[in-house]
């Protein structure tokens, strides 16, 4: 089939991993041009987009405008959006041209803006949070729970443990920033990766942050070389599992994650992943990981095996394609 994903293809992003996997399984995929993460997340562009939306009185993004301008010529079988809503009028137009519409929302539901993805125009809705999927179903929407995944083409074991550093990667929002500051005060050796730090970040965090946004094989090497990877999430995440959980497992790294019941749908705590319920438990796990590397290696290997067997993008897309076939 021909899939149109109306978004930019940033390396190792949701769009990149899904489009890569669809192509690898024989489908045609069209996205907007590749861009780097620094450009896409530029605060200047964000302010410009917000200003233009205010002046024009529309919330339609440049990506959706591109979709509307090009879908007739491109003639896709499916428009697949990834953590990206579409206006109800756009969904109606696509339906008039017999194009299937699918949304796979990989972010926390709390980060939806406006009407979000709550629209009767979608043929299929996939969202990682089980409770959110349930709420959508109660409204009669075609919703299913579906976690994100890892891409074994580049989320793979490329480095053995080389140090006792705890890796923290991603956006340093309020919760992660505070947690990082506490770990620094307790003399935990850290490596920090990600894009721009917030202007309000503490000087001690700015001093050790690498400023590197790691992707693909480089991400795998960084994760594998560390003692472990701390997978903390925003306060709005609630009972869900982020894509980092599957990526860390795919690299063969040791994952230390805040406990939530949803983890047990994906990994066995204590055997495939380490989980903590308090800051003191986190410190105990870090100490244990440093003291018993052989034990940790078994957990790394078990997490990797689980990820390869159950949590690749191919597994997730097979589920989506099955639901798509059931519509016909």
Structure write-up:
The protein has helices at residues 14-24, 37-40, 43-56, 62-74, 88-96, 130-138, 174-185, 203-208, 216-225, 243-250, 279-291, 293-310, 313-326; strands at residues 2-5, 28-31, 78-82, 100-105, 124-127, 143-145, 166-169, 190-193, 228-231, 255-258, 274-276. It has 328 residues and is α/β, with parallel strands linked by helices. The chain has two domains: 2-149 and 312-326, 3-Layer(aba) Sandwich (Rossmann fold), CATH 3.40.50; 166-310, Rossmann fold, CATH 3.40.50. Helix 10 crosses helix 12 (293-310). The longest helix has 18 residues, at 293-310. It is globular. It starts with a strand and ends with a helix. The model has no long low-confidence stretch (mean pLDDT 94).
Secondary-structure blueprint:
Blueprint: E1 2-5, H1 14-24, E2 28-31, H2 37-40, H3 43-56, H4 62-74, E3 78-82, H5 88-96, E4 100-105, E5 124-127, H6 130-138, E6 143-145, E7 166-169, H7 174-185, E8 190-193, H8 203-208, H9 216-225, E9 228-231, H10 243-250, E10 255-258, E11 274-276, H11 279-291, H12 293-310, H13 313-326
Parallel strand pairs: 1-2, 1-3, 3-4, 4-5, 5-6, 7-8, 7-9, 9-10, 10-11
Short description:
The protein has 328 residues and is an alpha/beta fold.
CATH architecture of the largest domain: 3-Layer(aba) Sandwich
Main sheet: strand order? 2-1-3-4-5-6
Order of helices and strands: EHEHHHEHEEHEEHEHHEHEEHHH
Compute the number of helices. 13
Q: Would you tell me the structural class of the helices and strands?
A: alpha/beta
Most strands sheet: 6 strands, parallel
Look at the structure and name the CATH superfamily of the largest domain. Answer: Glycogen Phosphorylase B
The number of distinct β-strands equals: 11
Reported by name, the CATH topology of the largest domain is Rossmann fold
Query: What is the radius of gyration?
Result: 20 Å
General form: globular
Percent helix, as a range, is: 40-55%
Low-confidence runs of at least 5 consecutive residues: none
